[in-house]
Amino acid sequence: MERVFQLAAERPVVVFSKSTCCMCHTIKTLFFDFGVNPTVYELDQVPGGREIEQALARHGVAGDFPVVFVGGNLVGGANEIMTLHLNGSLSAMLKRAGALWL
């Protein structure tokens, strides 16, 4: 899990995704629509993706993609991101992390 947190801390928004996951696509599109350029790791395409997926599962995030980190902190998956978006707190979180300038 250390590698996951290290990757997550390198950029303001990090998304662990799968290229065939429709909810992953939706969340990435939401970030792009905000003007945020998340770092995306497509676990079914990157070297070591399976190991990252196993580390996430050991941390209690099993099979639920995307997995989103903002400001180095685990936020959760699509449900959590959409809840934050709908209640208006996602943009403030992105600003605090330095991912959104407006």
TrEMBL record:
Main location group: cytoplasm
Entry's family note: Belongs to the glutaredoxin family. CC-type subfamily.
The keyword Cytoplasm belongs to this UniProt entry's keyword annotation: yes
A single cellular component GO annotation: cytoplasm
Descriptive protein name: Glutaredoxin domain-containing protein
Keywords, ordered alphabetically: Cytoplasm, Redox-active center
Domain Glutaredoxin: 13-75
InterPro entries per the UniProt record, alphabetical: GlrX-like_pln_2 (IPR011905), Glutaredoxin (IPR002109), Thioredoxin-like_sf (IPR036249)
Pfam family, one: Glutaredoxin
Compartments where located: Cytoplasm
Keyword Cytoplasm: yes
